[in-house]
Amino acid sequence: xxxxxxxxxxxxxAKPKRPKPKSMIMLNEQTAxxxxxxxxxxxKGEKIGWSTSIFPQEIPEALGxxxxxxxxxxxxxxxxxxxxxxxxxxxxxxxYNNDICSYAKINLAYAEAMNEGGTLVMPxxxxxxxxxxxxxxxxxxxxxxxxxxxxxxxxxxxxxxDYVTESRVKYIRSQLDQCIKDLCEFxxxxxxxxxxxxxxxxxxxxKELWIRANELLANEPxxxxxxxxxxxxxxxxxxxxxxxxxxxLTQLNNEIDExxxxxxxxxxxxxxxRIFWDxxxxxxxxxxxxxxxxxxxxxxxxxxxxxxWALDYESNDLDGMAKAYSYxxxxxxxxxxxxxxxxxAIKQFNCDGVIFHINRACKVMxxxxxxxxxxxxxxxxxxxxxxxxxxxxxxxxSEAQFETxxxxxxxxxxxxxxxxxxx
Amino acid sequence: xxxxxxxxxELAAAVDNPKERxxxxxxxxxxxxxxxxxxxxxxxVHASGMIPMGLWGAQTEWKEVKRYLPAFACPIMxxxxxxxxxxxxxxxxxxxxxxxxxxxRCVSQDWRFAVEDIPMIPVTHPQxxxxxxxxxxxxxxxxxxxxxxxxxxxxxxxxxxxxETIEIYNEHSRLMQEFAQTANDHLDVITPAIRHIVMKxxxxxxxxxxxxxxxxxxxxxxNMPKHNFTGKKVILSGITAEPTEILDxxxxxxxxxxxxxxxxxxxxxxxxxxxxxxxxxxxxxxQWKNRKGCSLVHEDFKSRGEMLVELAKANEAAGAVYCQxxxxxxxxxxxxxxxxxxxxxxxxxxxxxxxxQKGSFEQARTRIQTFAEML
Lengths: 423, 375
Ligand code: SF4
Ligand code: SF4
What we know:
The complex is a heterodimer. By secondary structure, chain A is an alpha/beta fold. Chain A is built from 16 helices and eight strands. Chain A has a four-stranded parallel beta sheet, sandwiched between helices. In chain A, strands 6-5-7-8 form a four-stranded parallel beta sheet, with helices on both faces. The longest helix of chain A is centred in the middle third of the chain and has 23 residues, at 193-215. Chain A starts with 6 loop residues before the first helix and ends with a helix. Chain B has helices at residues 2-16, 18-27, 42-47, 75-86, 102-114, 133-153, 159-183, 192-201, 207-223, 244-252, 280-289, 304-314, 329-344, 362-374; strands at 32-35, 51-54, 92-98, 120-123, 232-238, 255-262, 319-325, 348-354. A four-stranded parallel beta sheet of chain B has the order 2-1-3-4, sandwiched between helices. At the A-B interface, helix 7, strand 4, helix 8 and helix 15 of A face helix 5, helix 6 and helix 13 of B. The complex binds iron/sulfur cluster (2 copies).
């Protein structure tokens, strides 16, 4: 689970550009501010943290800590096609296997050997929630060991049942309490209950705004090019508990509303097909992917990211928060939950097809999906296609294969549409 | 000598043909539950009056599994799922699958949906062992396993039964530890392959039965004069060190295995179930809290590298072979950390790819040969 700041912008083909929407300018400012503020805080001797992407950020945010997100930065590096030296260092002198997650490879190389002048400020502590995968635990363990800094973990316990068992809620809750205590002790900050509630409220608001913006793409034709939403994910990953995010997402919602009102869309050509994208974007090839899809008028209207931060809990309900952080991420849930969520989304967004990224970097997103997609397709009647890629290691993707697979999907979608039109 | 050879070949036969062991127990009217690696609470199966049997893959062709797993999933899970899909595990009343890594998470679900005639019992181990709530959580996971087991047996496990099982398991673990130590005085008899067979074989026996065999083996070894081994000594680390061809190559180059940090072998026996700590189920859960130095157990400032150095030094090993299960990411993350720590302590390291698929061992041979020269 991750995203980047300027992915489409960086990887898209050079063309006369539309003026940047205001929300995007605000987003860029926010991104720059986080990097700058973190750097300054470090200079002042504050303790800086690195975190996984779906950690209960409400805690460090309430403490006023500066936190950065390696997955997000890895995506940015990959999208700008700058990953190669990191990958080479990780697999060469650092002796990491080519098989591990490419975000991890980039970040481990960065942390150990290549952080000179980078946007990530070297951390004093680490925050890990394993609700996205187990690989992040291993990756951050290594950071902790090599940088000799503490790691604070929230173990969110994989859900084998279709719900979060009470025993999980209790255990995760006890870790949240512990984490608050440990972080206060380590950073010397004081816990402020009022501020915590405020952050929870802001986070809830941001979540709603994010979901709303995404769900507006359920309109036909969609008011926006779905790939553009990838750009805004960084605000949810890196600044989910901040008021500046509320401003950005409100602006974004207004812009989309405006398109709806005017019957316009940022999708550049006529929209022929609506697809659901399952998996992380292929950052180094975003431009290529978009071009390929555009040829057929395919717009990505739905993706796993819509509900990626659908963390539903009542303000100041820590048990609810414990449950939400376990239940929300798709990778922490069993196949029946996964199938249901995907099938519902495909119907909600009225998708004509599904594109499934068989991501070489990410076993948790590949090893149950083959069966899951067969079943989802049976339920929805919507065809799907898988392609081999990697969110950040450019060596694991073939443009030709992607193009052929999409072509194949289009043929099926077309035939299906014709059949539907003919009653 | 005759006796020990007989005992060892019994174990070799079991490892060679686990299916026969399965049929043996089924023939006795017992129910058998398949236990995926690793740290599956097989004691609960045992105390429920059934036979737990380890499922650690096999050298088999992958056909059906291609519909479920990409080529870059680890060989153990490919083989286990393939055998499940093909019906090769017919006779098992259930399988227990833990969710210790990303592949496990998914495979538990693939099994659940695809292998309909053998129910899957999941178990999730807590990873934040430093947190006080972790044991309560694991107790409840174990209770959920017990509930599902009781559906198979039609009975509820008793506390007394688990107490007895714990004694059997702890005795067995002590014997296995003793064997590993005793074996080092008899490296002529206990070759790397034989050591592996003995350590692995317990997966296919009711543990009290296996203990009886182990007592004979240990006694016989102790009766023999100590052997003065003049070759080179190494320790093994990883998930498994299979197939035995690799171990035979070690022996060919006069390399003995004097200790292991393999999940399939010593990890099964190195942590006893605590004598105290509450109810039997809770004591079993506390065993997990005491585990460390393993890629499947989260631990602050992972100590595996240091533990390997200690293991090597205590057993006078000059080198460590890191048996890298192909596509096993937890192990891939641990490797650089372990390798650096070992090298810093002057211990040579060889990372060897482990793949259960049948294939040629020429590359492994060349690498082992070079390694032997460095030792
Ligand atoms: S393994 Fe997958 S879920 Fe985990 S960090 Fe990498 S891409 Fe994200
Ligand atoms: S990846 Fe490693 S730990 Fe996970 S199932 Fe495979 S061998 Fe076991």
